[in-house]
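Field notebook, page 479. I keep forgetting to write these up properly, so this time I am using the form the group agreed on. The chain and the ligand, cobalamin, are recorded exactly as supplied. Prediction of the bound pose follows.
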Amino acid sequence: MALAVGTLSAIARELGCAVGYFETSFYDKSRTATEDREETGEFRPVDRRKEALLPYGRMAEDLSVQLAALRPDILAVTANSLEFELFRELMEAVRLPEPRPLVIVGGVHATIDPEEVIGHPLVDALCVGEGEAAWRELLQRMSAGQDIADIGNLWVKTPGGLRKNPLRPLMTSEELWATPVDYGFYDERHLMKPFDGKMCHRGLIELSRGCPFNCHYCVNSAFKAIFRGQGKFFRVRPFENMQQGVRTLLGLGAEMLQLQDECFFSVRQDLLARFCDWYGREVRLPLLLQTRPESVTEDKVRLVAQMGVPVQVSLGVESGSLRILKEICNRHMSLDSIRGAFALLHKYQLRSNAYTMCGFPTETRTEVFETIRLIREIKPTVSIMSVFYPFKGVPLRQYCVERGYIRGDEKARTFTDESILQNQPMGADEIKGLRRTYRLYTKLPESYFPEIERCERGFAANRELYQRLVELSWSPEFN
Ligand code: B12
Ligand code: SF4
């Protein structure tokens, strides 16, 4: 569940507003990315208790009933690009009560493509970027019966036309984490996540927000362009505030913690030392974190290892081809820095996870095998491959549109769906086959490659062989 919901609901409750919550996660939309990765062997399959998902067709009716009962003044929606597709579908079928609530949308998609969001006939307002201050002001003004047309960060439809208000400066670290998250609505199923074949209560926590890099497939590049001149993009959380956040998660029963920082080792050495010292003494739960290969130094890895708790470090490798890394992804790193980062993690006996992608614009099969060979060489504990998708606002989207690789009106996809790119050295089926057999190519000896290729190119006819090879890839011999 989105952190934004807990943050914005805390502000609303503080102002004395009644808050209701409608959860779209537990309707049976389609297979999740996690389930897909269990089938491909990238994740160890979990014997999950069958989550009772509700039929998708009921979602609009359930929301209509809840809205009729609550009769809210505001219908506030948070949505990334995928979730905005869902919002559109839902709004076609939902019955809004009369008088109609003000419909306001915020989150990643409203930030990177406000024109599309405000163009929706049922959207009355949207929030670009950080919502805390704008949301507070909106609630205060509506409660006082005042005009809401000129609130900073909001775009508002008024009888006189659309008001696109200027951006507020980005919040300081102190402001950013000042509101304690309201976990009152969080369904237990959001907290139970599969890890290494078991379901575990996993708490998500931030020590920093933002990222200092500019990868051309990543939404952070779009955010930085939007917020240029508005203040510091990379912010580190005040230490005591972070401790309080962790203690709240422990109180909720967390069995492991996941740092949601996008590049954790960007925090300064002294702060990392303070965090590790405290975490290793007081918290001692398994920890998942992610960072960039170049940020991995021996001093930082040693600090993390000295905590003496199980740690998994995820690193974005993305590709084993220097051309793809530099010319397409704008990731100016050497393959040796990737090799060195994994060697350090393994020297200190930390678990490692390598994220890779395939289906980049202009990528060839040979380049995908450069990725596969690099992963075989660096031997991460886990590695997962995603399919490139050009989200709105990222530089590679423009690149794809200009060259006719995409039209620009395709629906948003998850990273396990098929490639939408046209006129590429590899077709969507080849990319799908390579992603499906990625674990096999990266884990099993090369003598298996002919059999793996049979599964890659003819999945339907070779399901049994595929299943056997996936199981083999999990055998102790290859792990
Ligand atoms: C943690 C995280 C996850 C977690 C948890 C997701 C969740 N639902 O919370 C997990 C691992 C599950 C996840 C999964 C995915 N993620 Co993710 N994730 C993030 C990450 C790192 C942080 C999000 C976060 O909690 N931020 C803190 C909150 C407080 O910020 P916020 O949501 O932006 O909300 C603020 C404002 O936007 C605004 N706001 C938000 N909503 C509203 C509503 C109103 C009414 C108002 C007024 C204001 C407002 O106010 C809030 C407070 O300031 C972001 C990176 C990023 N830079 O955003 C990527 C990010 C959101 N994820 C991304 C992607 C691609 C995915 C996946 C599709 C990956 C996949 N598996 O294929 C999935 C999709 C999941 C889904 N349900 O759709 C992309 C989204 C791209 C896009 N255009 O949509 C991002 C931006 C990463 C990136 N750098 O490209 N993700
Ligand atoms: S390092 Fe990661 S979070 Fe930072 S810009 Fe690149 S992909 Fe995005």
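OBSERVATIONS:
- The pocket of cobalamin (ligand 1) is lined by residues 1-4, 7-8, 33, 76, 78, 80-83, 104, 106-109, 111-112, 127, 130-132, 134-135, 218-220, 260, 262, 391, 414-415 (CB under 6 Å).
- The domain at 173-446 is CATH 3.20.20.70 (TIM Barrel).
FOLLOW-UP: compare against the apo run.
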